[in-house]
């Protein structure tokens, strides 16, 4: 949100929320609290603007992908792809389930930064009904209301997350690097929102399309040539446009290194998953092949729609309409013909928030300025 809408002090800064018609809840404990910027679900358009025929968030010039129904429907497909490819909503099954095991002491808390249409947040709220899930985004979701233990707040998380420090048992973000300038800072900031012993999960996709040998595919220029791809070209131009604007869109490649360097997390796990674009990949059994075909079909739809979603951003960057039309046309043809077999590479990292250090006697002495003489 706009900086001016907030009291930036740690204890009172709240985000606007769509959890109810008139009430905004404080971030810390779920109790009703006055907000400096609240709105009714019907006036969410205040956060949106039209660019090149699509609806975008109105508050952040770095993130120029749409925030409309079409985009949230695309993200739902991408969510299903990840869900099927990973087998669940998160890597580190044991750590996440342990962190969210019910306890009589308090409600377990989950935070999803850059929640988009809220698909992951809603999935977690349904899987862990005793927990409270908060999804934060620049713009409201247009598709569905959240279950009672899930709510959305609207904020630009790059303005700082002090109001959330040490609050959540699990903190997650996926595909948000396009809205972040300094992703290493973001990892550290997100980690500080996790309670000691809790889990941080970050996933980023890679805009360099990969061939069957898992090597970057050459983008098509001019008339295109054998082995060149128009989808790879459209993604390459999207990447250039995001990078020129200052986005850390390529952060997936450094995710593992930054997690290991983060002083707030330990027990780091990292994995890469290659997702086929289109139903071309075969498994070892008919069931496995069917699953790969389903994943590939959803990913093909997602990528066709992604090229269309880039139009407002690429228009703003000065790309001519004829070239953008060509990206759409040639990508559709390429992904229908499936002569080129391509993958999208996903980077997944997780870590556990370091336990709070035991206070030593000398810390106590310093903190309380005790005179021992
Ligand atoms: C590609 S979408 C991914 C949405 C969701 N995480 C998913 O995987 O379906 C990225 C989302 O991050 C949000 N976002 C990007 N930068 C942000 C920021 N600085 N603060 C809050 N939300 C941000 C965007 O508004 C968008 O909804």
UniProtKB/TrEMBL annotation:
Region described as Disordered: spans on this chain: 1-27
Biased composition range(s): Low complexity: 12-23
Organism this protein belongs to: Schizopora paradoxa
GO biological process, one term: methylation
KW Nuclease (keyword) present: no
The protein's name: S-adenosyl-L-methionine-dependent methyltransferase
MF terms in GO: methyltransferase activity
UniProt keyword list: Methyltransferase, Transferase
Stored SUPFAM superfamilies: S-adenosyl-L-methionine-dependent methyltransferases (SSF53335)
């Amino acid at each position: 949100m706009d900086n001016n809408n907030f009291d930036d002090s740690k204890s009172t800064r709240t985000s606007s929320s769509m959890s109810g018609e008139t009430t905004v809840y404080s971030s810390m404990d779920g109790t009703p609290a006055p907000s400096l910027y609240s709105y009714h679900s019907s006036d969410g358009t205040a956060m949106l603007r039209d660019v090149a025929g699509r609806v975008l968030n109105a508050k952040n010039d770095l993130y120029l992908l749409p925030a409309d129904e079409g985009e949230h429907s695309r993200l739902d497909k991408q969510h299903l792809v990840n869900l099927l490819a990973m087998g669940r909503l998160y890597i580190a099954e044991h750590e996440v389930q342990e962190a969210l095991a019910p306890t009589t002491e308090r409600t377990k808390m989950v935070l999803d930064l850059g929640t988009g249409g809220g698909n992951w947040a809603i999935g977690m709220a349904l899987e862990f009904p005793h927990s409270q899930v908060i999804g934060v985004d620049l713009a409201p979701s247009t598709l569905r209301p959240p279950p009672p233990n899930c709510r959305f707040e609207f904020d630009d998380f790059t303005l700082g997350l002090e109001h959330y420090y040490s609050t959540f048992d699990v903190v997650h973000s996926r595909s948000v690097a396009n809205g972040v300038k300094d992703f290493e800072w973001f990892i550290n900031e997100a980690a500080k929102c996790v309670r000691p012993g809790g889990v941080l999960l970050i996933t980023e996709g890679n805009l360099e399309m990969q061939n069957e040998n898992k090597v970057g595919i050459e983008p098509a220029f001019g008339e295109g040539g054998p082995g060149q791809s128009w989808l790879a070209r459209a993604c390459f131009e999207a990447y250039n446009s995001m990078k020129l604007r200052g986005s850390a869109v390529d952060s997936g490649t450094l995710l593992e290194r930054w997690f290991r360097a983060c002083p707030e997390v330990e027990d780091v796990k990292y994995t890469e998953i290659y997702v086929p674009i289109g139903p071309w990949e075969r498994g070892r059994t008919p069931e496995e092949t069917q699953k790969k075909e389903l994943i590939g079909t959803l990913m093909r739809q997602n990528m066709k729609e992604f090229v269309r979603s880039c139009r407002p951003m690429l228009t703003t960057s000065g790309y001519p309409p004829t070239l953008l039309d060509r990206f759409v046309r040639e990508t559709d043809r390429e992904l229908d013909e499936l002569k080129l077999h391509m993958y999208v590479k996903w980077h997944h990292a997780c870590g556990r928030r370091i336990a709070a250090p035991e206070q030593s006697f000398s810390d106590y002495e310093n903190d309380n300025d005790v005179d021992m003489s």
